[in-house]
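Homework-ish question, so no full write-ups if that breaks the rules, but can someone show me the predicted structure for this set?
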Amino acid sequence: MTLTEKWRGGLLYAGVFAVVAYCLAPFYWMLVSSLRRTSDIFDTSLLPSSVSFENYRAVFDPAQGFGRALLNSLIVAGITTVLALLLATFTAYAMARLEFRFKRLILTLIIATSMFPVVSIVVPLLKLFTDISWINTYQAMIVPSMSFALPLAVWNLTTFFRQMPDELEHAAMVDGCTRGQAFRKVIIPLAAPGIFTTAIITFIAAWNEFLIALSMTNKPAMQTAPVAISKFTGATTYETPFGSQMAAGVLVTIPLVVMVLLFQRRIVAGLTAGAAK
Amino acid sequence: MADTKTPAGRAVHPAVGSSSGPLNRRRTRKQVRATAGSGRMAALLVSPTLLVLTIVVLYPTLMALNESLYGAKGLDPKTGFISDTEPFVGLRNYADILGQAGERFWNAFWNTTFFTVVTVALETLIGVAMALIMHKAFRGRGLVRAGILVPWAVPTAISGLLWRWIFNSDGIANALIGHQVLWTTEGFHAKVAVIVAEVWKTAPFIGLLVLAGLQVIPKEVYEAARIDGASAPRQFWHITLPLVKPALLVAMLFRCMDALRMFDLPYILIGAQKHSVETLSMLAQHEASNVRFGPASAYSVLLFLYVFLIALTFVRLLGADLIGDVGADTRKRKGRRLRIPAPRRKEVTA
Amino acid sequence: MKTRITRAFQCSAVLAAAGLLLSACGSSGDDGSGQTGATSFEGRGPITFVAGKDTTGTLQPLLDRWNKLHPKEKVTFIQLPTDADAQRQQMIQNAETKSDAYTVLYLDVVWTSEFAAHRWIDQLPEKQFPLDKMLKPVVETAKYRDGLYAAPSTSDGGMLYYRTDLLKKAGITQPPATWAEMKSACAKVKKLPEAKDMSCYAGQFQKYEGLTVNFSEAVNSAGGTVTDANGKPDVDTAEAKKGLDFLVDSVKDGTIPKEGITYQEEDSRQAFQSGKLVFLRNWPYVYSLAGKSEIAGKYAVAPLPGLNGPGSSSLGGHNLALSSFAKNKATAVDFMKFYTSEESANYFLKEAALAPPYTALYDDQALVKQYPYLPVLKESILRAVPRPRVVQYGDVTAAIQQEAYAALNGSKSSAQALKNLQKDLQQKYAAQ
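A: Not a homework solution, just the prediction itself:
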């Protein structure tokens, strides 16, 4: 171990610390605020003067239906992600591996569709979904979510697939694999980190969608977590329910992170498994 | 994650060596093209996506386009009721936005542009730095990696509230800098507040995608470079950056699209109708909330055109990196840059 | 087609030249068909009640009572987001899609005109509601062009909170009735050692709906007006300028702390509760909350001060309205009568401290004992001036906030701000 290497190690940990501090300091503030009593919510001390779980109790007050809302979010974001990734994988494969006309045009169109401001499509969509009685259904939230999830997934997967040298696939095909097998057994495992990251990012984007989810539902049993949070209030009309909103924010965020942690290894391992053979 | 990948890399790369090289490369591609009738295949693979997007987006967008040609409903002074129908006004809404409301529109336009340029630039710097650090092996990396997801995972509305609290006149931001800045009033400081909050939230987005881009670079590439004696900065500029460039560019493209449509954050953090932070989306929202769907749609269409133009520029300028060998012209132009990784790969595998 | 477009263009060009965008073009459609008077209400069965979250826990018991009495005409609660703008947005979306999901709407008083003019809500039969027992300014908030479009449910008025302990120490026995008295009282209080870092006064001066409320109160309290009952603006006057100047000068000379222009209700309450303010303009909800803070027992309320005597408050509160697209309207009207009855109002006041529309309740001794501020609140509401009752309320309040905020942060003189505001409002009024 030379001095420079020690230095380098130190520098790395300083860097890691900086990254963690940057990402978590505001979140820490959220956590601390959520643990304060309503009466000292305006405090700026770094630790709550007395820890109180009243905000968390408020969030899980059965009348809020927050548990149900989390489940709804999971269903909506989960299905959106799976569908988007499935469709996007096919499309991205074509984009990365096949030569055909209008490729650039199609890619541009795909991203263009995700650009229209939601405020302007929500009323037409609402009219459409009312006509086909989709109000208060999961598909009314999943289908519009595809509009941003799908382009995100297609574009990202395309770049990750493209990064794989196509010689790999070809070698596999020489070994007797079909094109589909070659793709599944060679490219997917190698691109696993990319696929996984795309999935997380798509999932979170869908998980946090608010305006559509708010507009397409009017039954508490169907509302998603961001919608449920928007309905928290303080004890009177003017009181800001800041504490319970922060508590809800923590509760919406933590499961996501835990889920990512759990799946991180497993999914990647699963995706990679094919290649080892 | 890199360790799970390595065996696969090792297993396959030797096989590549035998058939690689620019010449073979080209031939393989031709074979693929010849054997498959790839046009039909591509159509098959691409059509589900296009179909879904057509249903989900095209219909409402066309509705909005149509809507933008209609004015607000009129009030009958005699009955006191608003009429049921919207008058057809052609391009009047657009003319009004650029004429009567021009000052407000251009202010919002520059705010939007300013936010986009500044936030995406900062996010790219911070995101890439994050990714480079995270790419190094250290204990607890999985945990840290999940941790940096936190800002991106916090719902935008909640993060808006959080930052409003932080930037409150008696809030922690002022306590930390020991000086009272009224962040939520008009002025440059309001822009700063929005930028800080936005960059915090979305830098991890770029960080994660770049990290994934780094992880799919075969390790051998670096090893070869190290043998060549390339210094760390040189490695970064000549190997890492070109290889993660596609992932980085796509991440930046999506960030640009999102930043151009920024709405919740300035709206919640600073408030409606503050000139310093008013964005184009906020103008559309303002019209829609006052039941003028025509003008609201017109704002959206203008914003859409702007975003589309930026996206098109991105795709045009960076086409080769993003999409690959699209037209022959791009290949010629981008040829030099494209070839950089290829010979290295050859060195590696040879 | 071509002629149609050209005509539309000519038409809108003329209108635009006059600063208009609305009317004429649109009135060629079907106008005023049907509803000239109150429609008859038919249909019985399940209905919905649509409001932001019930913050007090008193709503569900009331709904349960109704449901028990009317098992075949049950009412379901549809809860909207906390944010008032988001509530309005959802209600408008429901109306735009002509959905029957919403039956009875809990409307903010300032939305009445807009909802009525768009025919999103039905006109109600006046005789079925005991309007003569209610405070007149409150009833006015439920009307549009002399027709009743909503049933008054709760009211709200601004009051002046003040620190009794400090005033007493400084030798002041009466709360101030004018702005000048308030400033001189402050000067005396600030000579006390414990009050030397305090600021004198605050209301809600962030650029949002609260600023419209505070600006209108200042103008009205100086004898000016923002708009008349029909929405015709008359704000570029000497009186209005005195009102606005009170706020502007107070910010300049530190009577209002400089962070005052970031205050919403909660920030100002917090400042008062933590002992930073001697006087505070706020709603009745602060009364009980301040009782649990460090200034418990050290404050009282008085009517808002004005230029030459007591000032006038703006009116808050909510009314019940009936969605035009709903089913089972007969049930809905019955439910509205039930919900807005004096008995229910009494219940809401007792259990949830919601200010009732009924005059008698303000004089009820038992209630006054429970809520010592009731007499002051009654006075406040009786002297209150409604915020502009116009169809395009969103535009009007935006214009007010725009100019008032510019004057407060010093980027425009108050004379200039009022002049611009008059011009803006005039344009919007003419467009109606």
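Now go work out the reasoning yourself. Hint: Chain A touches chain B through 115 residues (CB under 8 Å).
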